[in-house]
Design brief:
The chain folds into 2 domains: 222 residues, D-Maltodextrin-Binding Protein, domain 2 (3-Layer(aba) Sandwich); 182 residues, Periplasmic binding protein-like II (D-Maltodextrin-Binding Protein, domain 2). The strands form 5 sheets. Strands 1, 2, 3, 6, 14 and 15 form a 6-stranded mixed sheet that branches. Strands 12-7-13 form a 3-stranded antiparallel sheet. Strands 4-5 form a two-stranded antiparallel ribbon. The N terminus is likely disordered. It has 439 residues and is of the alpha+beta class.
């Protein structure tokens, strides 16, 4: 599933406003739908065959893996048949919800759950969860938190994504290192030593791209983006500020002009010319899918996988990281909420979750699956599965304004790196723009 840009974010806000204004039916109507579902549960009348529509964002081989599970469900449930549709245009999801004709179940990104849920586009699942005694304690806390807000659970995370540090063993050995950096101070040293300039000062090899996402390193410094008690956004938090300073310090060693020149000659990510595969990057921060790409495009690459370095002054922050998720939810206004829940719950059960995530190379969100045999043959997964249980993994705060917050932070972070704005001014701009949205 691919993210959309800022224009999509504005459209999302507009459509969600339409949900609240009643384009898809009034609150009383929505309540009536839910109460009707509750009444049906207590009825002894025979149930007629129900067909559910399931919109998901995966395509290609990943969609094929999901369709296999849909078939498995349909073969075992003649009374509830599910029809899948690969639909990664989330604007169409919102249009269908506001128009009163939503799919019965759908997928989305974890960071979009709370903005959609709190604005009325997603049905809270808590009554279903309590009725069926679903053990939320089996879900990785950082993954589950992206689906919850204000005491409500709007979705269940089906897959999670965590970044780790990949390093080229041969390049590190050539530079005199026997292993990867463990602390942020060591990482800074490694980057400088592993960056090679030739031909009159032109960059030929980079230790680590300095513009790597600030979220991961923010958690390495114990940073926080939101104070829920005070209802204050905190892009100027000390840990966040340290992470931005770290990226800025590395960026300034080379300068925008030289980094842009260097980047213009790099190969495509999903190809044998990926800069990490060709040795242009000695280290990179990437997800659990990268080992599969290495096996396909650079099978002879000698590499290692290590935890994200942590602030040496805070050893309790060891194994930090940023978690993102893919989730399943029930849209507002569905005609068969009980049946939708049965399928959603089944998909999130350990057996189905293991089959799906192993097939598409994503991490499971259940801790009970971290030693499951399905993942033994997936390259690099043992390191990532072990890492996914770290208590220092966090997801970006789940709020109704998360999309706008992340977009503005990324814009100002890039401006800070390039020297278009000072660090303090850039973070202030984020706060000034996003704090009014807290209400």
């Amino acid at each position: 599933m691919m993210r959309k840009g800022s224009t999509w974010g504005l459209m999302m806000v507009f459509l969600l406003a339409a949900v609240l204004s009643g384009c898809g039916g009034s609150k009383d109507q929505a309540k009536g739908n839910q109460e009707g579902g509750e009444a049906a549960k207590g009825s002894d009348a025979p149930k007629e065959k129900v067909q559910l529509s399931f919109w998901y964002g995966w395509t290609g081989p990943e969609a094929e893996a999901l369709e296999k599970l849909i078939k498995k469900w349909n073969d075992a449930n003649a009374d509830i048949q599910v029809k899948g549709l690969s639909q990664s245009d989330y604007q169409k999801q919102l249009t269908a919800i506001t128009g009163g004709n939503p799919p019965d179940i759908a997928s989305n990104f974890g960071q979009d759950v709370v903005p959609w849920g709190e604005r009325g586009a997603m049905m809270p699942l808590d009554d279903f969860i309590r009725k069926d005694n679903v053990d939320l304690g089996d879900f990785v806390p950082a993954a589950l938190s992206s689906s919850q807000a204000s005491g409500k659970t709007y979705a269940l995370p089906i897959a999670m994504h965590v970044s780790m540090l990949f390093y080229n063993k041969e390049l590190l050995e050539k530079a005199g290192y026997s292993g990867p950096p463990e602390t942020m101070a060591q990482l800074k040293e490694y980057i400088s030593k592993l960056s090679v300039k030739e031909d009159g000062g032109k960059l030929q090899q980079l230790g680590l791209w300095p513009g790597v996402d600030a979220y991961t390193f923010s958690y390495a410094y114990g940073g926080s983006y939101y104070d829920a008690d005070k209802k204050q956004v905190t892009p100027d938090d000390a840990g966040v500020k340290k992470a931005v300073e770290f990226g800025k310090g590395i960026w300034d060693q080379f300068g925008s002009k030289e980094l842009d020149r260097f980047a213009s000659g790099l190969g495509q990510y999903m190809s044998p010319q990926n800069p990490f595969f060709t040795g242009k990057y000695a280290m990179t921060i990437d997800g659990e899918w990268l080992p599969t790409f290495i096996k396909q495009y650079a099978p002879n690459l000698k590499y290692g996988i290590a935890p994200i370095p942590y602030d040496e002054s805070k050893p309790d922050l060891k194994d930090p990281g940023n978690v993102t998720t893919s989730v399943f939810y029930i849209p507002k206004g569905v005609k068969h909420p009980e049946e939708s829940w049965k399928f959603l719950k089944w998909m999130a059960e350990p057996e189905q979750m293991a089959e799906f995530t192993a097939a598409i190379g994503n991490l499971p969100t259940r801790t009970s699956l971290q030693t499951h045999e399905s993942y033994k043959e997936v390259p690099g997964f043992q390191e990532f599965l072990k890492y996914s249980s770290s208590p220092n993994l966090h997801s970006f705060p789940a709020t109704s304004f998360s999309t706008e917050y992340m977009t503005e932070f990324s814009n100002q972070y890039n401006a800070i790196l390039r020297g278009d704005v000072s660090l303090d001014e850039g973070l202030k701009r984020v706060k000034d723009k996003i704090q009014p949205l807290v209400k």
